[in-house]
């Protein structure tokens, strides 16, 4: 609650809200109906979606919000500037949003805040949805589903009934002095009824170089913390995914949210985009939907018309091979679609069906790649590697399949990360193939530098006869195979790949010089900034190194 204390010594802190006065022993309490929420993200970059939604909704209910980004904060003490910020703002509730890799930083920060402040803390986000039983041990409340309505309800509960009454709100679990009260999931929010989110809200702060800085007052700093150099707005037009892929958290979240895909109306999406477009720096829209193509043709047609008329910026979407629709793809291309990310994951049908529980045959990938190639949209295909369940034959099949895809295309390899709660992790942990905490130190970009990974990486770039010649089981490889693979990998990575990427990107952007220059420059600037930060000190230390250090400094934090 907004509480302005006027002490008998006359020290005054004035807050610009409409207030009412109550006299209390020795000082006045000026109170209003609105509550104050502080939302904290420990993510390493400033590109947030879920937290922005919660903030926007809380504000639309008349409450006050600040978002604070503490990139990877995992220190043994609370920095005095963070403490000062919290003390000055004096929130009624602190919320933290976490993905699995932020679990220990969130546990640590909650402990540090609890040592200094008597403010209730709520955790939410994907990791909490996956592991509410574990998370509720460390926070006062956790949100086991979508947070928009639950947080407003909790703030108003705290305002009306105080902290001593256990809130009775769907989605909100309570830790009542060690006894845990679980709650059923709330009905899903109606996406069109949510307020739209801003690209750079003026209540967004960052802890940077020992200071708390308001991002909107320092937009350059915001861009240096954002993905793609801050040239790109991240947006979601649907929520949900109907598939049960073994490595994906969606297979679990579906049991909470259901299989249905919820969609926003064209009008609602365009409203967000119009607002975002007011920032002249935004030149790209990144649709993060798992299932953008679940919109029907009618929706796509209207969306593309409105998009071209009002927005007219290049954009990217994710596609699923089996459901890529030609008509929709060409409509989108005409409206500005410049890049598609397609999750291929593996070129082996056995691995897809038997290990990943992903019902996609490679023949649909081939068809989808042909369509994408025909549309001249930049193709970016995502693969999963380092799978302990894959045999040599599976890996060779995968490389063989990928070499057959229509070129030019680009590829990215991600380490098979055993994130908590997925079907595959449960299996691998049970079979003792993986340590349950392995995902904390190795995820996504940290892939093994194996012979097959190198070969797969260059499958789009080197002549096919080389791939066929080099794609051999270990037992039949010799010195020439290894040498050639290493040399070609070096050349492909340093020269062919950047050239192909530049070409497909420029073509996808319809050879628009301005867009191409800004997209490339934006990415280049953010890559350079990261390199410099890493070089200059621990402000952007790799997360796993920071975690390793924290394990030595605070062993207690890692006890379960
Ligand atoms: C967009 C996105 C990103 C964006 C933005 C993330 C963000 N914080 O908003 C970026 C690109 C930054 C990103 C990065 C990563 N991501 Co990501 N990402 C997604 C994606 C595609 C959509 C998320 C989204 O916007 N959903 C819509 C919003 C509205 O939902 P939400 O974020 O879950 O938020 C709701 C609730 O969770 C809750 N909630 C959220 N925060 C809070 C806070 C409080 C206090 C409360 C009460 C509630 C609450 O309320 C929100 C509103 O309803 C999901 C896949 C998916 N379909 O969920 C993967 C996903 C979340 N990402 C994932 C991963 C692995 C990563 C990376 C580790 C990948 C990497 N390359 O390293 C990094 C981690 C970055 C970091 N921690 O530093 C995994 C997470 C797995 C896990 N167990 O943690 C997912 C599930 C993908 C997958 N299928 O496996 N990601």
Enumerate the distinct ligands. Answer: cobalamin
Strand content: 15-25%
Shape: globular
- Can you tell me the CATH architecture of the largest domain? Alpha-Beta Barrel
Show unreliable segments: 2-31
Helix share bin = 40-55%
Q: How many beta-strand runs?
A: 20
Overall pLDDT: 89
CATH topology of the largest domain: TIM Barrel
Task: Identify the strand order in the major beta sheet.
Answer: 10-9-8-7-6-4-5-11-12
Tally the structural domains. Answer: 3
- For the record, what CATH class of the largest domain applies? Alpha Beta
Radius of gyration: 25 Å
What structural category do the secondary elements indicate? alpha/beta
Structure description:
With 560 residues, this protein is α/β, with parallel strands linked by helices. The protein folds into 3 domains: 1-33, no CATH class; 35-225, 3-Layer(aba) Sandwich (Rossmann fold), CATH 3.40.50; 228-516, TIM Barrel (Alpha-Beta Barrel). The chain contains 20 helices and 20 strands. It has helices at residues 50-60, 80-89, 103-116, 126-130, 132-135, 148-161, 219-225, 250-257, 266-277, 297-310, 326-335, 349-355, 362-375, 392-404, 423-430, 451-458, 464-470, 479-508, 513-536, 543-553; strands at 3-6, 20-24, 27-31, 36-41, 64-69, 93-97, 121-124, 141-143, 172-176, 179-181, 204-208, 211-214, 232-235, 238-239, 262-263, 284-287, 315-319, 337-345, 378-385, 410-415. Strands 10-9-8-7-6-4-5-11-12 form a 9-stranded mixed beta sheet, with helices on both faces. A hairpin with a 2-residue loop joins strand 9 and strand 10 (179-181). Helix 10 (297-310) packs parallel to helix 11 (326-335). The protein is globular. It starts with a strand and ends in a 7-residue tail after the last helix. The relative contact order is 0.08. Bound molecules: cobalamin (B12).
């Amino acid at each position: 609650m907004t509480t302005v204390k006027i002490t008998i010594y006359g020290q005054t802190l004035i807050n610009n809200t409409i207030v009412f006065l109550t006299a209390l022993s020795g000082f006045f309490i000026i109170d209003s109906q609105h509550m104050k929420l502080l939302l904290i993200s420990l993510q390493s970059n400033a590109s947030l979606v879920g937290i922005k939604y919660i903030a926007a909704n809380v504000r639309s209910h008349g409450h006050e919000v600040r978002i604070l980004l503490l990139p990877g904060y995992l220190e043994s003490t609370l920095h005095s500037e963070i403490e000062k910020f919290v003390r000055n703002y004096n929130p009624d509730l602190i919320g933290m949003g976490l993905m699995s890799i932020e679990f220990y930083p969130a546990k640590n920060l909650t402990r540090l805040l609890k040592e200094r402040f008597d403010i209730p803390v709520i955790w939410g986000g994907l990791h909490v949805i996956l592991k509410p039983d574990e998370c509720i041990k460390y926070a006062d409340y956790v949100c086991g589903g979508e947070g928009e309505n639950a947080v407003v309800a909790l703030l108003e509960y705290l305002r009306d009934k105080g902290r001593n009454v256990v809130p009775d709100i769907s989605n909100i679990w309570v830790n009542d002095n060690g006894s845990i009260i679980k709650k059923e999931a709330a009905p899903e929010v109606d996406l069109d009824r949510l307020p739209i989110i801003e690209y750079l809200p003026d209540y967004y702060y960052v802890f940077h170089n020992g200071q708390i800085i308001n991002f909107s007052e320092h937009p350059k700093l915001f861009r240096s913390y954002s993905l793609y150099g801050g040239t790109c707005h991240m947006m979601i037009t649907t929520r949900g995914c109907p598939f049960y892929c073994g490595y994906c958290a969606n297979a679990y979240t579906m049991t909470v949210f259901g299989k249905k895909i919820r969609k926003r109306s064209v009008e609602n999406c365009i409203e967000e985009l119009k607002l975002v477009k007011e920032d002249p720096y935004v030149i790209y829209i990144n649709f993060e939907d798992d299932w953008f193509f679940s919109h029907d043709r009618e929706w796509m047609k209207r969306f593309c018309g409105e998009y071209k008329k009002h927005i007219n910026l290049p954009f990217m979407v994710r596609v699923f091979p089996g459901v890529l629709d030609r008509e929709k793809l060409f409509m989108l291309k005409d409206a500005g679609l410049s890049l598609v990310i397609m999750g291929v994951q593996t070129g082996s049908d056995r691995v897809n069906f038997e290990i990943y529980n992903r019902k996609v045959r490679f023949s649909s990938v081939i068809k989808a790649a042909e369509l994408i190639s025909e549309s001249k949209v930049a193709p970016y295909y995502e693969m999963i590697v380092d799978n302990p369940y894959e045999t040599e034959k599976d890996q060779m099949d995968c490389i063989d399949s990928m070499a057959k895809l229509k070129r030019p295309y680009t590829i990215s390899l991600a380490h098979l990360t055993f994130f908590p709660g997925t079907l595959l992790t449960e299996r691998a942990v049970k079979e003792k193939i993986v340590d349950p905490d392995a995902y904390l130190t190795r995820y996504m970009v940290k892939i093994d530098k194996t012979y097959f990974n190198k070969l797969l990486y260059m499958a789009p770039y080197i002549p096919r006869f080389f791939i066929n010649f080099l794609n051999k089981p270990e037992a039949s490889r010799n010195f020439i195979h290894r040498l050639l693979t290493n040399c070609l990998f070096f050349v492909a990575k340093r020269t062919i790949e950047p050239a192909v990427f530049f070409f497909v990107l420029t073509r996808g952007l319809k050879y628009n010089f301005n867009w191409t220059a800004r997209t490339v420059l934006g990415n280049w600037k953010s890559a350079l900034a990261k390199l410099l930060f890493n070089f200059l000190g621990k402000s952007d230390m790799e997360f796993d190194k920071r975690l390793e250090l924290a394990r030595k400094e605070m062993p207690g934090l890692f006890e379960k």
